[in-house]
Amino acid sequence: TGVQTCALPILLDQINSLNIAQYHYKTEDRSDPLRLGLIAEEAPTSVLAVGGKGVDVYKLSTFTLAGKKSL
User: Under DSSP, is residue 47 helix (H, G, I), strand (E, B) or coil?
Assistant: First the structure.
């Protein structure tokens, strides 16, 4: 129950507007490899983990798949 479909073209627009970032965690040395990902404060709320402090990888992969389907 409670299952709804998504408007796929809208998701594709959101995907196209995402900024992919390279970064270090505050606790990492600058010599460590850069991480690649989204900045939670800039990401769509539909892909954020509970609490909004990070990105939920399952939500993000589904979000990306839905965008791909709309092509």
Answer: helix
